[in-house]
Amino acid sequence: MYTIISPRLGTPGDEFIPEDGVNIDALLDGGLISTDTVKKSSKVKSEPKEQ
Amino acid sequence: MAISSTYLSNPSVTINAVDLSDQCTSAVINYVSEQLENTTFSNTSRSFTSGLYSNTVTVTLYQSYSASETEASIYNLVGTTTTLVLKPTSSAVGATNPSYTLTGAFLSAHTPINASLGELSTIDLTFAGGVLTKATSA
Predict the structure, then answer these.
(1) Which ipTM value was assigned to this complex?
(2) Is residue A45 part of a domain?
(3) Which of A17, B82, B104, B124 is most buried when burial is the number of CB atoms within 10 A of its CB?
């Protein structure tokens, strides 16, 4: 679920329901909406430990 | 003299669902069908048929780095596609206030800093491609 932060998208605090073609990542990265789902972080391959 | 000229004083410009009308000073929709020639020997004049549509929307916005303003709305759109909605006025969509929606438009470039001494900073953006639809009812 997405929540409106910016009044430019609607009433802050209301649920944001994206229409077709809307770039959600750009809105999230710009701080215009928030989401309650946690983004999975990309896996970082750790280097082998030296012995 | 034209009977009903349009003086755009209060148009509506929404980019990626963000209403940026109060930062916008210019908006142009180019609705273009590429022309493909299909003239043959039997013709006495050149003849064309429709090819791919090649639409663009060009807007000029005042730059602002504050929260929820121009930079926050535009920066992350570069290299992606989005949807734009433009209307002659902010009133409800109708026959005399059509809505134009460009879906799947690509933004290839943005100038985060475009400043001159003594002038308000503005940015020009061109969204290219996508499907343009016109609506005359909500």
Answers:
(1) 0.86
(2) no
(3) B82
Check: CB of residue B73 under 8 Å from CB of residue A23. no
Take residue A41 and report the two structure tokens written for it.
């972080």
Number of domains in chain B: 1
Domain that holds residue B75: 12-135
Nearest-CA distance from A35 to chain B in Å?
A: 16
Alpha carbons B92 and B12: distance in angstroms, whole number: 11
One-letter amino acid identity for B68?
S
| B52: CATH | 2.40.30
Q: Do A21 and B83 touch (CB under 8 A)?
A: yes
Tokens found for residue B84 = 């734009």
CA distance B72 to B87: 23
Supply B18's token pair. 């963000």
Q: Which amino acid is at B103?
A: T
pTM strictly above 0.80: yes
For residue B19, the chain A residues in CB contact (below 8 A) are 8-9
Query: Does A24 reside within a domain?
Result: yes
Please check the confidence at residue A23 and state whether its pLDDT lies above 60: yes
